[in-house]
Amino acid sequence: MDEDDELEEMMMAAPSLREAKKNEHDMLNKAVSHPLRRKLVKSIGVFGKTKTDIQAEVDIDDASLKYHTEFLVSGDFLKIENDLCRLTDKGLDLLANI
């Protein structure tokens, strides 16, 4: 195997358990350290809310709501079905620790 193939194989390999835990911790830290994300998580709460209800409660514009909800979805803290935002189990753990 030549060097290019080895490099490509290393880049395509799944992260180690340690790397995966570090990435998960980094995402959790980013989620909880941003004040607007904390407000969103608190607003969504245990039962979930529509995007319209969240916007009214948090007073956030469309672009900011989209950006921060996409971040929370990518971190597996939030799922969005139609217009309803609901916290995942990981998101509920985040809510409990805010």
Instruction: Give me the CATH superfamily of the domain at 35-98.
Output: Winged helix-like DNA-binding domain superfamily/Winged helix DNA-binding domain
Number of helical segments with 4 or more residues? 6
Low-confidence runs of at least 5 consecutive residues: none
Shape: elongated
Q: Any idea of the CATH topology of the domain at 35-98?
A: Arc Repressor Mutant, subunit A
The topology string of helices and strands comes to HHHEHHEEH
Structural write-up:
The chain has a domain at 35-98: Arc Repressor Mutant, subunit A (Orthogonal Bundle), CATH 1.10.10. The longest helix has 17 residues, at 17-33. The model has no long low-confidence stretch (mean pLDDT 89). A hairpin with a 2-residue loop joins strand 2 (78-81) and strand 3. Strands 1-3-2 form a 3-stranded antiparallel β-sheet. The chain has 6 helices and 3 strands; from the N terminus they run αααβααββα. It has helices at residues 3-12, 17-33, 35-44, 51-58, 62-74, 89-96, and strands at residues 49-50, 78-81, 84-87. It is mostly helical and 98 residues long. Helix content is 67%, strand content 10%.
